[in-house]
Amino acid sequence: MAGTIAQGQRCLQHQTTQSHSRQSGRKAAGRKAPGPLLQRPAFGGQLDAFAGPAVRLSLSSSVPVADRLVRSQAVALEEAPPKAAPTQDDRKLRDDLRNIAIIAHVDHGKTTLVDAMLKQSKVFRDNQVVDERIMDSNDIERERGITILSKNTAVRYKGIKINIIDTPGHADFGGEVERVLNMCDGVLLLVDAVEGPMPQTRFVLKKALALQKKVIVVVNKIDRPAARPDFVIDATFDLMLDLGASDEQCDFPVVYASGVNGIAGNDPSTLAEDLEPLFTAIVREVTPPMVNSDAPLQMLVTNLDYDEHKGRIAVGKITSGYLTKGEQVAVMKPGDEKAKPGKIGEVFVYDNFNRVPAGRVDAGDICAITGLGEVSIGETICSKEDPQPLPTITVEEPTVRMTFLVNTSPFAGREGKYVTSRNLKERLERELERNLALRVEPGETADQFIVSGRGALHISILMENMRREGYEFAVGPPKVITKQIDGHRMEPFEEALVEVPEEHMGQVVDLLGQRKGQMLDMQAGSSGTSRVTYKIPTRGLLGIRNAMLTATKGTAVLNTNFAEYGAWCGEISTREQGSLVGFETGQVTSYALESVQQRGRPFVSPGDDIYEGQVIGIHQRQGDLKVNACKKKAATNIRSATKEQTTGLSEPIQMGLDDALEYIIDDELVEVTPVSIRIRKSPQAKRRP
To answer: Which residue stretches does the UniProt record annotate as biased composition, category Low complexity (predicted)?
Structure first.
């Protein structure tokens, strides 16, 4: 018996975590390597392999473990009562499975780390050529270098399946992060080894802590010359305290890694040659799903995909029960009086980089199913005999809105395939099915729609997708969503963190001050930079990125995150210069452009087609100025051969979609087509003086 208890104590010793604790005063650099994985105790298979917590509770009892095991076996030999219906107490740990999400601030290396995990799990052949950022499969994601949509994959490590969810890092796509956290049991919080926690780090960590997810801190990019791991660990600990984390949550494990090199370790000075320490930490620290496969089926739909042949694909984690191909199910959400019947088509699980067909999927695993054409995110796929919906997914409310309109410019219909209000409405309604953070409301007229999102970038990604699909439309300037609280007008405020070289700090302070920003903190950054934190109205951030890059010669880095609603700050001027407006429809000439560029900076080049009312440049003074950019040089017998010769034409400003949205004000619209991005004066808006 003594040997049995000693064996249980050794199991507990193996399970002890090397974690960060401010109270104990341990330094990250002095952290010991974690012990071996917890092995199955030699109790003849009576206990589950991951029964560490159960063993710990048993040792605290006055009855020896071996005695109680014998007694439980004796009770089992007695005549058993009739079997009761499954309850929550019948749940068991699935020790062959781990579900994790990777969360971080933008550009802290989430997708790159997933790439390395996939490669080291032998997902690809040794001679296979693999692109960088494999998970960023969307064209816009690859072009911009950011993750927009959360994605699922899975790897296997020592017989254990690890479902991995890669999430966006930009604050505007926080809705993606909020809903996928429902599928995971733990998170890898990536923090840059130089920058430390950033605004979006705070947002994603707050959500993970609120859902009681196990947090493993991964100090990424540890190979950078300016890496400061001790500072990063301390800053992360302080952030957890600010977010009200419990003592247990503050005692977090730490892994140091370089995703681009595919190495990790438990000490920043001695890294392994691969990601073995990271895989070990995931298996050891993340609790396996607690499930009951005999209970009624429950699966919360957290994502939707679409296939041309299979139709709508619902993705989610099975909370209880199991799912089989061809099964009759019910679909409902809390508050529904009646469940919708349905039949499962095909069932898929994630294996390596693919979706693999499966006949049956048990509770705890993440799967994708077809056959339910009307299912939506937030609904529960339930047992037909005993439908029990799970709580629906909630995300934070939008803070910015834009007006989408049917394009009515003189060039309307030239370049787009879908141009009517019906086309626009159907596309926006389809986007609502999977984009939980988006809202669509009818506008003032039948051809207007108010689209609300988490930020201008959130909505602009939708616009970019639509134009690539062949849609043509117009949009108004971004505007903040205000609220009435206790009779007072309130507007959204954001926390803005700017890192800029010290010589440009004055310009940044002036710019943020003009837009009603309040300085909260100023610190010395790395490599001669300063980091300044402001609380600023969201209105003040609209159109600020280009202004800040211009003022700091492209050296400033701006990161923002929603903070709270505060009192209305009054009027904010976001643009001091007017626009150059064409007053003639035709083709731009070099001769006319010479005169135009003396009045400002043009957007157009010789040969471009423009129309009356189109904004063709930035006026160098306040107020708009109408100009003729189509004027031709008079041809005579003497000058006909050189009528279009010109000198001194400067390069026009290239206005992309994001640039145009930042530039426009209340009396202007952006015309979006599959081919062109134009700015025009709104026919209905009151002209500025």
So the answer is: 13-22
CB neighbours of residue 85 within 10 Å: 9
Q: What Rg, from alpha-carbon coordinates, does the chain have?
A: 30
| Residue pair 259/288 in contact by the 8 Å Cβ criterion | no
Structure tokens at 211: 């859902």
Beta pairing, strands 366-369 & 380-383: unpaired
Yes or no: say if 443 and 385 are a contact pair by the CB < 8 Å rule. no
Q: Are 274 and 265 in contact (CB under 8 A)?
A: no
Q: In terms of domains, do 156 and 197 share one?
A: yes
Same domain? 170 vs 311: no
Q: Which domain holds residue 141?
A: 93-290
Q: By C-alpha distance, which of 191, 188, 168, 170 is closest to 179?
A: 168
Q: What local confidence, expressed as pLDDT, does residue 143 receive?
A: 56
Looking at the fold, whether 257 and 344 belong to one and the same domain comes out as no
> Whole-prediction pTM value?
0.73
* Stronger pLDDT, 671 or 35, i.e. the higher one: 671
Whether 262 and 249 share a structural domain: yes
Residue 337 token pair: 């009086």
Say whether both 126 and 253 belong to one domain.
yes
Residue 413 included in any domain: no
As a whole number of angstroms, the distance between CA 660 and CA 671 comes to 9
CB 154, CB 143: distance < 8 Å: no
Distance CA 354, CA 350 (A): 6
The CA distances from residue 434 to 138, 450, 586, 653, in Å, are 16, 18, 42, 36
**Pairing verdict, β 380-383 and 354-357:** unpaired
- Rounded Cα–Cα distance for residues 159 and 571 (Å): 61
Contact 477, 402 (CB under 8 A): yes
User: Which of 21, 43, 77 is the last residue before a domain boundary?
Assistant: 77
DSSP string, 520-553: EEEEE-SSSEEEEEEEEEHHHHTTHHHHHHHHTT
Q: What type of residue sits at position 134?
A: I
3-state secondary structure of 489: strand
Q: What is the CATH number of the domain that holds 308?
A: 2.40.30.10
247: CB partners within 8 A, 6+ apart: none
Q: What is the mean pLDDT of the chain?
A: 79
Q: Are 685 and 667 in contact (CB under 8 A)?
A: yes
Same domain for 600 and 527:
no
Residue 82 lies in a domain: no
Given 261, 290, 319, the domain boundary residue is 290
In a shared domain, residues 270 and 328: no
Whichever domain contains 103, its CATH number is: 3.40.50.300
Band of residue 403 on the pLDDT scale cut at 50, 70, 90:
very high
Both tokens of 427, joined, read 């596309």
What is the 3-state secondary structure of 163-182?
A: EEEECCCCHHHHHHHHHHHH
Beta strand 400-405 pairing with 479-480: antiparallel
Which segments of 538-613 are extended strands (E)?
557-567, 579-582, 586-587, 600-602, 609-610
User: Domain of 628: which CATH number?
Assistant: 2.40.50.250
User: Is 191 part of any domain?
Assistant: yes
Task: Kindly state whether residues 174 and 142 are assigned to the same domain.
Answer: yes
Count of domains forming the chain: 5
For residue 226, the model assigns a pLDDT of 86
Pull the structure tokens for residue 117.
């995990």
Query: Is 460 among the domain residues?
Result: no
Confidence category of residue 299, pLDDT binned at 50, 70, 90: very high
Q: Is 8 helix (H, G, I), strand (E, B) or coil?
A: helix
